[in-house]
Amino acid sequence: MTEASPQKTSNEPGWLSRLLTTAPSWVFVLFAVAASFSTYFCMYAFRKPFTAAKYEGLLFLDTEITLKTALVISQILGYALSKYVGIKVCSEIRPHQRAKALLWLVVASEAALVLFAILPDPWKCVAIFLNGFPLGMVWGLVVWYLEGRRSSEVLLAGLSCAFIVSSGIVKDFGRAMMGGGVARSWEAMPVIGEGISRSLGQVSENWMPAMVGLHFLPLFFLAVWMLNQIPPPNQADMASRMVRQPMDGAQRVSFVRHFLPGLVLLMVVYFFLTAYRDFRDNYMVEILEALAYPYDQNQTIITRAETLVAFGVMLAMALLNLIRNNRAGLIAAFAVMTTGVLLLGVATLLLEAGQLSGFWWLTLTGLGSYLAYVPYGSLLFDRMMASTRVVGTAVFAIYVADAIGYTGSVGIQLYKDLAAGEMSRLGFFKGFTWFMTGLGTLFLVASCIYFLRRSVSSKVD
Fold first, then answer.
1. Does residue 24 register a pLDDT over 70?
2. CA 250 to centroid of chain Cα atoms
3. 188-209 per-position pLDDT tens digit
4. Using CA atoms, how far apart are residues 337 and 322, in angstroms rounded to an integer?
5. Architecture of 15-454 per CATH?
6. In a 10 Å sphere around its CB, with 0-12 CB exposed, 13-18 middle and 19+ buried, how is residue 10 labelled?
7. Which are the contacts of 131, defined by CB distance < 8 A and separation ≥ 6?
8. pTM to 2 decimal places
9. Residue (of 260, 177, 220, 211) closest to 40 by Cα position
């Protein structure tokens, strides 16, 4: 793997991009975080609202699989396939193509949600598959704008908070749109209020996902425009974090061979960690009800839990940015991830001992899982490439991990309904928590030792 010069484009930067180039670093960071956070937050309005509906009493065809499980699996299949395609597309895409690609991907996903609304129940799985496929490449395209900078930890932490916070908010948004809760109206959403609610009214479970997406579409377009104004890394960034450039097939194969043992350890953890995070996210409504938190009396409980999780993760990720040495930063990233999986077990132990409420247990399992999960999609591979002095893009490694992770998510969803169908979702989630604690701790520690042997000490300015 050899160094190469940064990619150049024929497009002249706009006035805002030029302004950000010379602006104080804190101005650039705030703008980049706002743009990337908003872009990915809005994307979740096209991906997650359907999970706020229960589709009670409906089975997929003549099987024992519930319709909701079939829908969740179908979207994950589309999302997972997108990650495999994204290994090539997102690692090779040129800078001038990224914004246009983001817009078309989300428009395609919204069109699929319209199909979801009008197709018969069994065919909804096809529509939600088509919805998930384009969305799987959004993350990589957004990360391209943020990686390889001295402030990447802060930028990527801000981006990561988007999928933590947005999932709960868009689900609460969707529930309110269907008339969920005691108020049975949009008044349950304080930002919207009574005046707007009268003009929008109540929608069905089938139309709710498309309507939520439609309301966020203009905001997504604005966020992508902002994102596209972010200037490329400067010379100081490239000196400290290495040049980030598209990778062709030969470079991708070389990367995998170079780090194969450590990557295998990381990918095994991510296989189960993604499944764990997805199970919690997709069935949070059902888990909360099993914990004696019915939605009618707890209309914003998901948003409250996920907001607390987001603040905790943001704080941990931002603190990592204070570490200037790339090797020390890599150690710290692994320490945060290992702490996260250990927190899963500690929280569950306290719940079983009656020392922790169900709300705080679900919040802490969210915090622990995201502390372990978030670095995979952002700073772990950024630090790894900086500490080992490998030229390329962290987006490639991120998409290899995501492809494997979402494959695991599909497998666990099927295992729950087909092999452990007699277990409640709460009981299954508790057992999965213990498993994730043991496997995650062991494999993350082993992976950390491997990559430390590959890294070099390199202080950043």
1. yes
2. 28
3. 444 444 544 455 557 788 888 9
4. 17
5. Up-down Bundle (1.20)
6. exposed
7. 46, 47, 75, 78, 109, 112, 113, 116, 209
8. 0.71
9. 220
